[in-house]
Amino acid sequence: MRIIALLATLVLSSAALAGPDDVVRPYPAEQVSPGVYVIHGPQGVPSRENQSFMNNPAWVVTDDGVVVIDPGSSVQAGRMVVEQLRKTTQKPVTHVFNTHVHGDHWLGNQAILDAWPKATLIAHPDMIKQAHDGAGAFWIKLMSDMTGGYTDGTRAEIPTIAAADGQEFRIGGKIFRIHSSTDAHSKTDLMIELPQDRILFTADNVLDHQVMNLRDGTFKGVLKATDRALALNARLYVPGHGRTGDRTFVEDQKVWFETLVSEVRRMYDEGKSDYEMKPVIAEKLKAFRDWPEWDTNLGQQISLAILEIEQE
């Protein structure tokens, strides 16, 4: 039994160490609309088990080439995205949108540029600034730490083109309309609309039935972004994590945040502490108890909501 346990440990340890050509295990791309593909990654945090891959890379095939949205969390994840993309089209990648500064969405840029060196990288201006000011190095280390070194070899390829709120990028006969904010999930966020297809890539401003980590954002900003997403009345919403779908999961997120914030505000006015609030709010939100990251992020959100109310 000891020998078996030792062998299992060695296998796990070796699996966590990435070689120079390692690729995350394959996840198939799904065509959610003609010419629009999404790889729906597993929900959760980066780990050895998921090899750092847990977001939703997507791409749009245009007349001139391919536009990628969020190629993943590491060079290893990005290579997997490149492999899956090449199964759907032989066109080159011409542009990449990075939706925000959190590294699980953009550190795969390296693999895209390795395959298509002329691709243009686009992001929120504050994302670009933060990446240069240390966020790139921070996320590379964090990914390595969380995956036991699996993502080692990843370098930060930082976007060079800044996208403004309301800006339209016309690429290969398609319009990519930008809806950006400075106070939502990460304060560096883009949502990307394909008006012709009535598709909205919400990034992490809206998640599919997952309790959001909001340590870098604000409730006010996320609620504003959620309302903006609903007002666009898209046919399909592609979240940063979870499954693509209709507006139902966007409406559910709105209910979550409105309920949590209103209950925190009510009990804050009554002089309650965060630990007194948590069981009450957990009961109010019990319909959402099976959402990923419930145990990790519910208490965090309550504490952050108190801080936000105090700042008001």
TrEMBL record:
It comes from the Bacteria. Residues 55-241 form the Metallo-beta-lactamase domain. InterPro entries: Metallo-B-lactamas (IPR001279), NDM-1-like (IPR050855), RibonucZ/Hydroxyglut_hydro (IPR036866). Keywords: Signal. Residues 1-18 form the signal peptide. Pfam families: Lactamase_B. The keyword Signal applies. Belongs to the metallo-beta-lactamase superfamily. Class-B beta-lactamase family. This is MBL fold metallo-hydrolase. It comes from Thiobacillus sedimenti.
